[in-house]
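#lab-general

N.A. 3:47 PM
ok so I finally got the sequence cleaned up, no stray characters, all 370 residues accounted for. can someone with queue access submit it? mine expired

B.Y. 3:52 PM
send it over

N.A. 3:53 PM
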Amino acid sequence: MSQWNDFLWPLIVLSDEAKFTLPVALASLSGEHVQDTELMMAGSVVTVIPVLILFLALQRHYIRGVMMGASRASVIRFPAVALAIGAIASLARTGASAGAAPPLRPPVVIDAFDSTAAWAAFPADGVQMKLSSDAGAQGKALRIDFDFEKGGGYAVVHRAVNLTLPDRYAFALTMRGERLRNNLEIKLIDSTGANVWWCNRRDFDYPRAWTTVLTRHRQITFAWGPTGGGDIRRVAAIEFAVTAGQGGKGTVWLDQLELRDLPPPVEGAPKARASSAQPGHGAALAVDADSLTSWRSASTDKRPWIELDFGGERELSGLVIDWAKGRHPRRYSVEALSEEGGWRTLRTVEGDGGRDWIFLPETESARPCA
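B.Y. 4:20 PM
back already:
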């Protein structure tokens, strides 16, 4: 695609008009004082047609690639005004079976925030910032008050640590905030202080209620430094940064920062159960990969639902649901177990029958449940 749209290099090296690429040829139709608009429009259509044909031919693979963002779920549920699911056509996922795995070590509490002494504030010029201790979800919390007086900048809290990261891990931070949407960054720094890895959540919607936010190893990428890339194994310092998106002033509370080992990904078909089922249309038939069978709720079931239990955490990128002909709901929701317990809505879908593609990027749900 980049070669097809290339303009500058062909413009420099090509002198024969018969060998001009399409972008260069289109540009040549526009002169300093006159241009052939109709011919340029015709040429633009000719330029776009091959790309459009390529997209139409490969759109299935394109959508599959978009859905590889990976989410995590242990149990998901579809409460709906639903009548029948022909099949859960696919559960796009990442990871491979790891076989029998050693037991996970308990979470490592990096900071319970009973004291603010270990944390230092580093605001940008023109940013007002104050650290203090306040009531947390459990015990105390680190309170960060800040004001982007000039509209831009950052407010950073820094703490020295000594952590060795396992192969699969996640940082769990219990937090809440009262502020406009701004970026939330977590940074891991090695012993040199020059190499930084990070996860940057742009336009982060800070939860007003205490919420545990997980940052997994796959979300942390190399940011800058002389190392030039790779993974970080030993962490000498950790930072949280609020950087100006919409600006303004606000407050963020941090509580209970943990390092958790993650289990190997779980494979195999999920177990299905439902609120009800008609004879010969049990819940298991929704995930048997057979388009000729289906789950159907009982005709007397006013609030039907079907639940998929993966038997442990699994990374998903989305769901593809095939509805039985003429039995799709007008509206339904997809829910997952939350970190705090209970169900939370991932998507609300306006159904129109046939196949529904449900994109679930970076969605977090509970850990394995019984």
